[in-house]
Design a protein that fits this description.
Elements (H helix, E strand, L loop, with lengths): L16 E4 L1 E2 L18 E2 L2 H14 L5 E5 L8 H14 L5 E5 L2 H4 L4 H9 L2 E9 L3 H6 L6 H13 L3 E8 L7 H15 L3 E6 L7 H8 L7 H14 L6 E4 L8 E4 L4 H13 L15
Helix pairs in contact: 1-2, 2-4, 6-7, 7-9, 9-10
The chain binds iron/sulfur cluster.
Length: 291
């Protein structure tokens, strides 16, 4: 396979074939994100992507799921995207799921009809980084969108019949804005009505602008306990029917899984149980060198 490293995928796509349809992220400005800093965004030629699919087929005949990397493959033009989806479906008869990352900035301008065509040709799920539903935090981290943009993008994805998995980045408001981050993220998620709500925890690696903010004291990172309290506050304000709530990322302190709304109190109780301990081992500071 011809991967331009590093390649990222959601944890739940660990068993998927990864095809790199695009390289990098067309936004690439978020102050906390180190994922694609070394890459200049481009859409790979469809012919090249098809060659990669052929290569993959020669070694793996029957994947049931494919993740189309990199950071915002939803920004691909519809025609080329559909060609790739069709080629994948022809190549792999047992394919059940094709997915990609999709930012609100690149979905809000698309027609629902466009997205519906992608769904009809096999795009099953979009992973979207909300990060925060608080407009002030979104502005500070240069996400390039507002909470309203997320709601509009989510409506389009859902209308098109594509499943929506949304990431919240715990700790993104720092100590100074953890409460606003939790509550406004919950309120935005309530409006977005995603199928999945996934938590990741902020890890600030050297080289990103936020790292300098930490060194200068402008941004104060939350402790493990504060992250757990923030997640608890988020959960207590969530009112989403039929969503799955998951804390399944390597960056997280607590593994959590449940269905909303029925498991909400159980999830909160699980956090309370950890918080009741004066110095819970699982909330101790960690050192993560890469994501
Ligand atoms: S967080 Fe997402 S949108 Fe922002 S730079 Fe990273 S990949 Fe791009």
């Amino acid at each position: 396979m011809r991967y331009e490293e590093p390649v990222f995928r959601p944890p739940c796509e660990a068993a998927s074939l990864i095809i790199q349809a695009t390289v990098g992220c067309p936004h690439n400005r978020c102050t906390f994100c180190s994922m694609y800093k070394e890459k200049k965004y481009r859409v790979r030629p469809v012919l090249e992507i098809k060659e990669d699919i052929d290569m993959a087929r020669s070694v793996w005949a029957d994947p049931t799921s494919v993740f189309l990397a990199d950071g915002n493959t939803i920004a691909m033009r519809t025609g080329g995207f559909i060609e790739v989806l069709d080629y994948l479906n022809e190549a792999f008869p047992r394919l059940e799921r094709i997915s990609c990352y999709g930012g609100a900035r690149f979905i809000r301008g698309r027609d629902v009809a466009d997205l519906t065509r992608l769904a009809e040709h096999g795009l099953k799920i979009i992973y979207m980084g909300l990060e925060s539903g608080d407009d002030e935090i979104l502005r500070r981290v240069r996400k390039g969108v507002t909470a309203d943009d997320y709601v509009k993008a989510a409506e389009k994805v859902k209308q098109a019949g594509i499943e929506l998995s949304v990431y919240v980045l715990a700790g993104l408001g720092g100590r100074g804005r953890t409460r606003e981050h939790a509550i406004n993220s919950a309120l935005t998620l309530n409006r977005m009505k995603p199928d999945y709500i996934r938590i990741r925890t902020l890890v600030i690696l050297p080289g990103v602008p936020m790292y300098e903010e930490v060194l200068s004291g402008e941004f104060e990172e939350c402790s493990g306990r504060e992250i757990a309290q923030e997640t608890r506050l988020l959960l207590s304000h969530l009112d989403v029917e039929g969503a799955r709530f998951l804390s399944d990322h390597v960056s997280n302190y607590l593994p959590l899984y449940g269905r909303l709304p029925e498991d909400r109190e159980e999830l909160i109780a699980a956090i309370d149980q950890v918080l009741a301990h004066p110095d819970p081992p699982m909330l101790k500071p960690r050192i993560i060198h890469s994501l």
